[in-house]
Model the fold of this input.
Amino acid sequence: MTTAANLPPVSDEVVVIGAEEAARNADKQNMRHGRPKLSAPLTGLMWLIVAIYALPLLWFILSSFKPGSELFTYPLSMIPREWTFQGFIDAWERVDFAQYFLNTATVALVTTVLTVFFSACTGYALAKYNNAGTRLFFVCILATTMLPTEVILNPTFTVIRDLGLYNSLSGIIVPSVLTATGVFMFRQFFLTVPDDLLHSARIDGASELTIFFRIMLPLSRPILFTLAIFSFQWRWNDYIWPLIVLNDPKWYTLQVALRSIVGAENIDWPVLLGASVISILPLVLVFFVFQKYVLNADVSAGLKD
Amino acid sequence: MATPTTGSTVTSETLRTPAVRSKSQQKRHNRYVIAPLILIGVNVVLFLVFFVWPGALGLIYSFTDYRGIGRLNFIGLRNFETLFADSTFYAALSRTFLYTVLSVPLVYVSSLGVAALLVSRAVRGRTAAKIIIFLPWLISPIVVGVIWKWMFGQDFGFVNFVISTLGGNPLPWSSNGNLALTVVIFAAAWGGTAFNMLLFIAALKNIPEALLEAAELDGANAWQRFRHVTLPGIAPTSFMVILLSTIHAMKEFAMIQALTNGGPGTENVLIVQYIYKTGFEQSKVGYASAASMVLMVVLLAIALIQLRFNRKKG
Done:
């Protein structure tokens, strides 16, 4: 099986990778001559910025291990004087946190699988079949980036209600499947796959859909993973769809539940901190496993959602 | 090496046009039309149902006094007339502009600065630094709001504690409107840096080393090299980051819901929150849709202006 890595360079993107390679080699050569003399101040500056970025997160995570009484006692201390998991336990047992967790996981996983699959199909069709229909649909997809959900809140609610999707998880899943970013990422990738591959498969008598499923889809693995992580993050952290679609607390997702804790008259900080920390754990886990698909991805093809 | 991707277009185009089609050509023609239709089918349906339908409904609603139930009564432009006379609408809109104008440059500078440091060979520990700065991307807008609310709590927050420890007076982070907006802007920059940083890193790595070296040989200092070689080189990425951040800022909602809920009072209610409040909490659907149309026009205008600007520069 051919993989993306050993295909001949066909586009700018692969050339980019080549350029990075060259930069890396240049790196090594420079190392031999010793580091540039600015090294220390620049490194210091970088790590100062890192510290500034890390501080809010660190303060937030360490606070979640403090008992309720310590949260508000002056002088505050960075490291908890007394470590406790009570906040997490309370958050988990409070109302239906386990249920919210399950709801969110269901939505994120199902939507991600559907998004990746249908984005691959659409992206491939837009990249490899050039006819009036696909060209028109490309413009349509482009238009969706100009019409975010936030602009059509009420009518979207009407549509969801009329389709009978109101107050159900499918009401969040189905409308989120189509994303412009996902389609563009796949389109961009399939544009780089040489048409010769397609032609020779056709000559061998493979049907169009067979070519897609047996040759093209496996080729797009790197993009597939990148989009999967993006989509999982979007859906896990999504707030506005669950907010307008869900009414019954038993279907709440984590973000809606968290918002109801933080929006309360008297905020229960120990529970809120515990719940918030728990809510980000799955994403952190996914990120550390699939890190390279995010950090090394050429995301310039995609847009933010 | 490069195979022109238009290759298949040319062949399929020529296959489709012969005057008399043989049976096999007809079959091939069908393949090229039906296969992509199957592939895009689901997304076409989703597009029609979740974009075209609500988009059209929204436009219709904006000319009615619809309240979520009952009949639609067309009232012409009255919603827009009321809207343009509504001071709370102007307050929300101008607050949104202010927020955008302040937060987009901050996001731009911080993500470009971080990216420049992260591609600089002089910096040690770049991989670890990149991961740490990227972490906020994982955190939802709601939790970003929670984190910054916790940092800037007026009576118990870390920042006020540090200020009072250093001998200063604690600042009213949540009861002063401008300070509250400042916190929102910081939080947005903190959360927005990560993704834009990735875009900039990719762009910066694309700038040919030789160009920078040539500039250096010609006696350009670091700032001149950045200003005249790097910045023009990353112009397309800059354009994209600014456009995306602007649109993102214009529709900021979740993070503010958690951080200030538009407070103090309604001083920092931004436009999407205004639409949500009127459309859902007061169920003035027609009126909220009119406000949505204004927001859409603003978003379109921003995109067009920036596109124009970008073309002119290019």
Summary: The CA atoms of residues 147 and 259 of chain B lie 8 Å apart.
